[in-house]
Amino acid sequence: MPFTNLTHWLVHGLDAAHGNLSFMVWNSFLAFVPLALSFWLFRGRGSHARQFPWWFGLVIFIAFLPNAPYVLTDIIHLVKDIRSGQSVWAITLILVPQYALFIGFGTVAYTISIVNLGRYLSREGKSGWVCPIELTIHGLTAIGIYLGRFLRFNSWDLLTKPDTIVSDTLSLLVTKQPLAVMVGTFFIIATLYWVLKQITLALILYWRTRNMRAAQRYLT
After folding, report:
1. Which residues contact 28 (CB under 8 A, 6 or more apart)?
2. What does the pLDDT look like over 108-161, one tens digit per residue?
């Protein structure tokens, strides 16, 4: 009987996980867009020629970047899954790992995207710009997440109806509750980014050192 109950709970958990795939796949794709653009804009061939396609790509990059950490707010769907009566087994073995991978991908995509930007600025001799630009991006991202989660704006609305977004944003910045939410979001994003940035840079350094040692052994 316990085995039958466990199987029943896990099947319901798999059904819930399957139902989550629709928004997870879409939001993961939106998070992947700025990540892919960051490699072309700041590390690939596009980084060597700042012409119209590069600037247009930069606008798309900035517009889509909030989609990466936006996945943090999708934790509300996990809360709904828990409240729907899912068993502890289904939540622990299926739903929590699913959300961890989903949210982890979004936050890592955000981190790597900005790290690529920072390394690009350093190569261009603008290392002093890195920290101010990072903080500015975190602030704009916090605003973008609020506009997306609560006012249901999309990234392409920044291109199709910028006047509406600007007016709504200005009105929110003078309202206490939305401003408090955005400030809290800013600190969460900035903290997560700082931690993941240190890990990313450490991994890059480790990889470079390992390759250099391998090259030295090959030459000798």
Report:
1. 71, 102, 105, 106
2. 999 999 999 999 999 888 999 999 999 999 999 998 898 888 777 777 677 677
Q: Retrieve residue 25's tokens.
A: 């796949």
Residues 59/34, Cβ–Cβ less than 8 Å:
no
pTM: 0.84
43-50: long-range contacts at Cβ-Cβ below 8 A with a sequence spacing of 24 or more? Answer: 43/116, 43/119, 43/120, 47/120
Distance (Å, whole) CA 134 – CA 136 = 5
* Spans in the chain with pLDDT lower than 50: 1
In this prediction, residue 101 carries a pLDDT of: 95
Residue 116 CB neighbours (<10 A): 23
